[in-house]
Amino acid sequence: MPWLEIHINTNRDDAPAIEDHLMAAGALSVTLTDNEDQPIFEPALGETPLWSATRVTGLFDADINTQIIDSQLALPASISFKWHIVEDKDWEREWMQHYHPIQCGEQFWICPSWIAPPNPSAVNLMLDPGLAFGTGTHPTTFLCLQWLAEQNITSKHVIDYGCGSGILGIGALLLGAQKVLGVDIDPQALLATQDNAQRNNIPAEQFPVVFPDKCQQTPVDIMLANILAGPLVELAPVLTPLVKTGGKLCLSGILATQAQAVQDAYSDAFTFDPVAQKEEWVRLSAIKKG
Question: pLDDT tens digit string along 22-43?
Answer without folding.
Answer: 999 999 999 999 887 766 666 6
